């Protein structure tokens, strides 16, 4: 019975996807509770405990995607929200699944720059699957090299659950490059969970960042470290 349901859902999704190549995906982002326990700095720990959930939007067409966070009213009052910071902050993130171009538009002291990033290298575990909102997903594990010496983000490991039946290489924040849409993922800091997917009849227009100088991640860290 379970296998029959899976087959029916797969055929249903294939029919929908065949009619359109564009969708809007909403993710809910939370801090991982384990990361709070692993932080020794009292000030950072208090900030993490006070950080609320945030929502993010991924829009894509047959070739490109945009990812951004919803407006945060707490910014008006200067309240720091680490969930927002590690979920993408105010950056506009762009990914092209054909040429693997991965760009993040941000500000350095109100000066716009575009950071050219390297995609994650993934290892797919074909024997591990689970259903997420009715979508059958496979598990993948990725790692990135040490970014800096802060205890929150060094030696990060990523876990992603992607749906091969939705054949687009997109996902939230930096979770791109897998053979299927990423529906759930987490690092050692934050967790992204699917809220809903809305398919569109018309192909969505995706904006490629163009408001600043394109620099590497290494150059961005060097510039940011000067201030």
Summary, kept brief:
The protein is of the alpha+beta class. The chain contains five helices and twelve strands.
Provide structural commentary.
The chain is 20% helix and 40% strand. It is of the alpha+beta class and 227 residues long. The protein has one domain. Strand 10 (181-186) and strand 11 form a beta hairpin. It starts with a helix and ends with a helix. The mean pLDDT is 82. This is GLPGLI family protein.
Name a few traits of the molecule:
227 residues, alpha+beta, twelve-stranded mixed sheet, 5 helices, 12 strands, 20% helix, 40% strand, GLPGLI family protein, GLPGLI
Q: What is the first-to-last residue Cα distance?
A: 60 Å
Averaged pLDDT: 82
Coarse morphology: globular
What fraction of residues sit in β-strands? 35-45%
Structural class: alpha+beta
H/E series: HEHHEEHEEEEEEEEEH
Low-pLDDT regions: none
* Main sheet: strands, sense, barrel: 12 strands, mixed
Strand order of the largest sheet: 7-8-9-10-11-1-2-3-4-5-6-12
Q: Can you count the helices?
A: 5
Number of DSSP-assigned strands: 12
Secondary structure layout:
Blueprint: H1 2-19, E1 22-31, H2 33-37, H3 42-49, E2 54-60, E3 64-69, H4 82-87, E4 92-96, E5 102-108, E6 111-116, E7 121-132, E8 135-143, E9 157-163, E10 181-186, E11 190-200, E12 213-216, H5 217-224
Parallel strand pairs: 6-12
Antiparallel strand pairs: 1-2, 1-11, 2-3, 3-4, 4-5, 5-6, 7-8, 8-9, 9-10, 10-11
């Amino acid at each position: 019975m379970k296998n029959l349901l899976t087959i029916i859902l797969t055929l249903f999704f294939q029919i929908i996807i065949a009619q359109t190549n564009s969708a809007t995906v909403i993710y809910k982002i939370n801090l991982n509770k384990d990361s709070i326990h692993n932080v020794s700095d009292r000030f950072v720990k208090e900030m993490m405990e006070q950080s609320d959930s945030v929502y993010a939007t991924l829009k894509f067409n047959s070739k490109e995607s945009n990812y951004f966070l919803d407006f945060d009213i707490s910014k008006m009052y200067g309240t720091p929200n680490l969930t927002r910071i590690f979920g993408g902050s105010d950056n506009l993130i762009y990914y092209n699944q054909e040429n693997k171009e991965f760009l993040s538009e941000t500000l350095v002291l109100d000066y716009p720059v575009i950071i050219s990033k390297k995609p994650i290298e993934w290892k797919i575990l074909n024997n591990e699957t689970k259903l997420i909102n009715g979508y059958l997903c496979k598990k993948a594990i990725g790692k990135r090299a040490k970014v800096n010496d802060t205890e929150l983000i060094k030696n990060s490991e990523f876990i992603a659950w992607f749906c091969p039946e939705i054949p687009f290489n997109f996902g939230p924040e930096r979770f791109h490059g897998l053979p299927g849409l990423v529906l759930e993922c987490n690092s050692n800091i934050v967790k992204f969970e699917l809220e809903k997917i809305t398919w569109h009849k018309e192909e969505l227009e995706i904006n490629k960042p163009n408001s600043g100088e394109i620099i590497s991640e290494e150059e961005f860290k060097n510039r940011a470290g000067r201030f």
